[in-house]
Amino acid sequence: MKGAFEAPFLFWWQKAPTRAGSRGSAEPSLAFGTKVPGFPLSRERRWWCDRLGDDIRAIDDSKARLRLESSIAPWRWAACAPRPKLRRLSRSQGPCVSSPHVLHYSAFTDRPEGGNPAGVVLDASGMATADMQALATRLGYSESIFVQPGEAGAFDVRYFSPLDEVPFCGHATIAGAVALAQRDGPGTLRFRTRAGLVEVVTAREDAGIGATLTSVAPHVLPALPPGLLDQALTRLRWSADELDPALPPAIAYAGARHLILAAATRERLARLDYDFAGLKALTQAHELATVALVWRVSEHAFAARNPFPAGGVVEDPATGAAAAAFGAYLRALGAVQAPTDLHIVQGEDMGRPSQLRVHIPAAGPIRVSGRAVPIPAPAQAG
């Protein structure tokens, strides 16, 4: 039975001693070094080269790729360090895909059982968009962050919910920044996101490492689109008289768009039983990341809840992007005297209490601060 070996980078096939292979056949070996004409060096293959060095053995091939035949069944790399293992791969399983190292953090908390969990990949340079989405879907967190290493503290960053890519995510930014600080030491980081450049400062605190993100330039829409409020209230199963008249509904942006609705009572905020499919369709139609439900505890303290059906998540335990947008909303409304600081408590009603600190300057971007801690991987992550 003819088969192929797979290694996604350049090499030269050389005759070498064989050793016993699968089913009693001989397994050929590959020697690293000389380029094979017509075999392109893609970013993914370069990624594997950097990590495997001369510890290579195999190749797969389809059409334009170089084909090498052996007498055993197809195999592929299943891990990349320190010496990759080979495992059987049926041809229907497709091409070789690297398995990134995934960290698991919870943001806006100093306890693993609190905060908002996020998957963190600190080196996503070899991952395709489809691979990132598949991993985020498998993890099931409200968002996961994928970091591509840069120079001098600058990183290209992407965020994925279980359903789609999002332009910016506050809690995953905090989680990723703390993970980088634990690996490289605290300092200033620059994340290049789809929403723009986001600076994050990490520092050691009594309970671990904290991070402060500075949002992109925020803004608040002067008015809601016609019909949006009535449709949102219907899908939330709220009534207009359950809203706080001192904090009128609005759409605010600080990296992502959020519909802000203020409850008149804590009891109204505590009851969350909404039409998931209906609110998902509505938020997608208006390009809203979440609906930010808030209740004013005191002059500088708020309780919050954030339905996130557009991302496939019933509720977000902590939403840094919404906190930044909410800070911009309060400043534009004149509901706070800037510069000032806010304390937002989120996630209490779903059993994952989170603490978000928001600094609102007199003008410009909003700063959101919090801690993050490592957590165990979910069972479905393997």
Describe the structure.
With 382 residues, the protein is an alpha+beta fold. The chain folds into three domains: 1-97, no CATH class; 103-214, Roll (Diaminopimelate Epimerase, Chain A, domain 1); 219-370, Diaminopimelate Epimerase, Chain A, domain 1 (Roll). It has helices at residues 43-52, 129-139, 170-184, 228-236, 266-270, 276-285, 320-333, and strands spanning 3-4, 19-20, 26-27, 69-70, 75-77, 86-88, 103-107, 116-121, 143-148, 154-160, 165-166, 188-193, 196-205, 208-214, 219-220, 250-253, 257-262, 290-298, 301-308, 313-316, 340-346, 354-360, 367-374. The strands form four sheets. Strands 7-8-9-10-12-13-14-23 form an eight-stranded mixed barrel. Helix 4 runs antiparallel to helix 6. The longest helix has 15 residues, at 170-184. The two termini are 33 Å apart. Mean pLDDT is 81; it is low at 1-97. Keywords: Isomerase.
Question: Could you provide a short overview of the structure?
Answer:
The chain is of the alpha+beta class. The protein has three domains: 97 residues, no CATH class; 112 residues, Diaminopimelate Epimerase, Chain A, domain 1; 152 residues, Diaminopimelate Epimerase, Chain A, domain 1 (Roll). It has seven helices and 23 strands.
List keywords for this structure.
alpha+beta, Diaminopimelate Epimerase, Chain A, domain 1, two-stranded antiparallel sheet, disordered N terminus, 382 residues, eight-stranded mixed barrel
Q: Report the structural category.
A: alpha+beta
CATH architecture of the largest domain: Roll
* CATH fold-level name of the largest domain: Diaminopimelate Epimerase, Chain A, domain 1
Mean pLDDT over the full residue set: 81
GO molecular function: isomerase activity
Organism: Pseudoxanthomonas winnipegensis
GO cellular component, one term: cytoplasm
Protein name: PhzF family phenazine biosynthesis isomerase
